[in-house]
Amino acid sequence: MTLASLRRRLPAIPPVVLDAILYAASALFAVLLWYGSSLSAHRDWSRDAIVGYLACAAVAVVLAVVRPRRLLEARVALVGVCVLVCAVLPLVLMVRERAASHGREVHVLPEAAVIERAGARLAHGRDPYVAEVVDGRLVGQVAGVPKYEAFFPYFPLMAVLGLPASVSAFGIMGDARWWMALVTFLCLAAGLVLARPPPDRALRLGQAMLALPTGALFLAGGGDDLPVLAVCFLGLCLAQRRREVASGVCFGIAMAMKLTAWPLAALTLFVVRDRHGRHAAGRAGAVMASIVGVVLVPFLAWDPRTFLANCLEFPLGLSPINSPAADPLPGHLLTVLVPGAHRVLLVGLVVVGAPVLVWWLRRHPPGDVASVCRQFAVVAIVVMCVAPETRVGYVVYPVNLLAWAWMLDAPLGGGDGDGRDAVAASPAAALDGLRSPSARTAGT
What we know:
Elements (H helix, E strand, L loop, with lengths): L2 H7 L5 H22 L3 H27 L4 H30 L9 H14 L8 E3 L2 E3 L36 H20 L3 H13 L1 H9 L3 H16 L3 H12 L5 H8 L12 H22 L1 H10 L16 H8 L3 H23 L5 H18 L9 H13 L28 H6 L2
Antiparallel strand pairs: 1-2
């Protein structure tokens, strides 16, 4: 089936029928994860979410048959119920189960525990980055945890989300997952208020980021990518509204949390403008750089070698301790089959990938925030497949980015709109636009 034929078929699917398909597919995914994952957090979430997804799928089928007069409102309510049953309720149960385990690192994804330990060190005035010298190389070393969990492979601002866990007064509310979820909800809500998309598109975005496994699993388990994505989403919505300084602040915060925000921030500089329509990359970039500098430089100066070992060597697979982010994707499989291919792949990504990306951007620069999302989604898919240390869970990036592109391509709800034209109201339309807006206008 060609992409064109797929695009012709998708709009023919009634939205409420697509809801039922998505919820049913989510239930199937939860069943497979329950039986196939070795992580207790994955199994816990699956156990709690399967019935919820099946119930939501059944309700969506009833709505498709009955077709009430206020169908859209019913679908929105169903998304809300799905978030409560498949994300919030599992989060509550998993937090309680973790608290009852008396300090055992179960019922939570490893990254949340890593963030909490970094926050605790920061709260006591210690460097959140730790490593010890073994055979002349720095490796992670924290008593009582696997060596790969001793690394803190994020930038310092991520540790702030782990600070409440070190305050005994918070009790179970100090769990980093509450604060990661709070950041995600607040930034998503603020972005939707700014973008003012059509209700059906806002509904799909809510599904992708909160209700379906691309959001619910990470909200309940403690995936660190959701808050980073949510802050970036708010930054994109601010860029769309031509608020370049506020957009720069958001991206600066995201960049001071995790390296994955940097490429999206760089692409956004192509399209950021001020209220008068003038290109404002310099002003937005200066704000981003200032925030990143203020946050990163003190920790880099504190212990440069340990900082680099945590933030670069370990996530890139250059540490003697292997990262658990090693799902059987093409890049990782090649490193398993061909010893020594690890460094070749990393060098190839830089030496070949960077010039190709620069060439593409020169010929097809993004023209708006929607095209920024589409182009970064493609980059994320390529890197995820080729990188030697990666995991299937990173698919949350391209999935959400394509959902953002579809939503942000819609006309603004009013006010200070920027006069963009509407495009086909189908998620498949997000795959279009890898060509520049000017090329599409010319019909080429």
